């Protein structure tokens, strides 16, 4: 196994208490961190009790109860840890030592806090928390260190499960590559599917548990590759079995297997925090990150004139300007943007020269006039860098918007399917050249967007998108060539459609990514449009004064994270539908966009982010969401008057279904809930019912378009969708996965024993 996660930095706690854990431990997951929080908090409270000359019986009893509670909780915790050790022999020795240390520390704390029955707790004849404060601190340190070791060792077991699952997948993949009959392939692929489901569950849980957002983004990208490639592997392998002598079919299949192996390897790199051959992770390479760091250094001169050299600052600017060459050298950058970027680059050099001149003078003679000149130079340099950042952002996003709009009709993909079925090799060759050109455009777009992405997770998403276009383009070409060589092959046709769908899906994802990049640039941090019906101080909340707002804790957020993720995916699907409508003022589109925006805010709530800060905010948003849904149902009734009589019953049925679901959501959102458990149940129900409404909307909008198109009524319909897409078989999206095996031991079972500890606050 690769480097374990327990071989790095430490756990910090209150400096006033003198507490600190083993410096050789680093907490990389939220579950481990959150398990330690109550223990650290309560021990710190115990250590920091006020030393008063007179101590009441109530105070002494409280201190003793805290010590006993710590000891009992540690005892239960250690019992679980010892059970884990017995189940995992390779960790038994380390786990046993950590458990013994934890038990010993818990007993020491119990002894030192055994003061309630003593007449004089500070007497030298009995060592207590009052006579040996240092002893308590040492015991607390040992306890935190040993508990952390147990948790991190348990976390290694989770990592081992992921590695074992990956190895199973790899072994089955090797079998799939070698099969020569359909019957054998079907049997092995069934096993492969089950193994992939298990791997998806394990890695999904790990992704949600990671603290590092950059690693989360990398994990999400790798898992997305594996998800899409699973379907590709099925059709590519079947095509290869049907046409074993076809070179293009073999190339197509080999490409899928290679990409899946790379994605599996990256997942293991992330969970083990290791890189092949000891390589270091690449430093940030975007213009945004370079400008941000450069400005921080420049503004730091206000506080300290000597903390860096002028050569250091000049080198930083040179690196930034080298990256701007990606824009100025690009064939897809407009002449106007190119000229502005070059002008601003030249200006940035001049501003830095002026800054350095004043800076050097200020180092020698710190006069008031020089310091004022330095301030002006700092402001002008930072303003120039802001202008440069704005210009490259405009260049990248305008190019992306134009390309995505231009390629939204997927004409090249349609042509490849048609010419492939016709067996027209010459026409296929012509359109594969056009697809290669399109691929180069989209790859360049991703590279430029990466520079202006604004955050590391979005930067990683841009890199993932670039890789996807780079790999999927040639795979579409090989699939199209196979179909052209075997035009009557149904499996070759299906295979091409799967790869084309992956291309279209990535284009759709790019629209969402572009919006998120613009949101970050405009300071919205990736949130959707603000929905103004959200309660604000002094408005709409006269009837809410008696209600106490509640926030979900981390454990509760984790429970609804998967439900929230489903809601996020549905908002993306609905946005894709609404953005295709030519008449954006259509009532159905307007209501759909509003509901998508509110659903996205609710998704952010499940992550502890966004404008919905409390459960009361969420419930109010759910009510408004349901009201908007009722308005959309009214728009559907109006549409039913425009359609043929044969179509009217279906539309009215869907409208009534929407009204019923919205009423149920309103009832749930308005229902009283007292207590933490009831509130969380209500939150879960609101998000679940919102998800159900969004699922219905994702089916309704394409139906409305189809009916409008059929009746040629008004201009509010979307552009015709490819016929093959309407008839495609949706696989895997709604399938129920097999019930997961319950793991008896692990982080969660340990977590319960610490999180459920109820301590008394010292008075």
Automatic annotation (TrEMBL):
- A GO term from the CC aspect: cytoplasm
What Pfam families does the entry give?
A: Vinculin (PF01044)
Annotated region Disordered: the residues are: 1-20
Question: Which Gene3D superfamilies does UniProt cross-reference here?
Answer: Alpha-catenin/vinculin-like
* MF terms in GO: actin filament binding; cadherin binding
Localization terms from the record: Cytoplasm
Write down the superkingdom of origin.
Eukaryota
**Major subcellular location class:** cytoplasm
Task: Name the family.
Answer: Belongs to the vinculin/alpha-catenin family.
Write the protein's name: Alpha-catulin
> What species was this sequence derived from?
Pteruthius melanotis
